[in-house]
Amino acid sequence: MSETVQTIIALTITACAIAYASWRIYKALAAKNGTCNGCPLKDTCRKEKRRRNK
Predict the structure, then answer these.
(1) Computed from CA positions of residues 8, 11, 13, 15, in that sequence, does the dihedral angle turn out positive or negative?
(2) What's the rounded Cα separation, in Å, for the pair 16 and 6?
(3) How far is CA 19 from CA 10, 11, 13, 15, 51, in A?
(4) Three-state secondary-structure class, residue 15
(5) Total-model pTM
(6) Does 53 have pLDDT greater than 60?
């Protein structure tokens, strides 16, 4: 492959990764139920916080 094609592919993947990360950050910050809403580790984090507070 030529260097130009490799550069285009790398830039496309990087742009997609940045767009996805931005979307997830926005979604987390805009959530009405807090930043942990929809997180699969939400219950585990809550249990850990309860143990530390006791």
Answers:
(1) negative
(2) 15
(3) 14, 12, 10, 6, 37
(4) helix
(5) 0.57
(6) no
pLDDT of residue 35: 61
Q: Residues 46, 49, 53, 54: is their CA dihedral positive or negative?
A: positive
Stronger pLDDT, 54 or 36, i.e. the higher one:
36
Find where tokens 């939400």 sit. Answer: 42
For residue 37 the two structure tokens come to 């809403």
What is the torsional sign of CA 14, 16, 20, 26?
positive
Cβ atoms of 43 and 49 within 8 Å: the answer is no
pLDDT digits (tens, 9 = 90+) for 18-41: 999 999 888 877 776 666 666 777
DSSP assigned state of 51: H
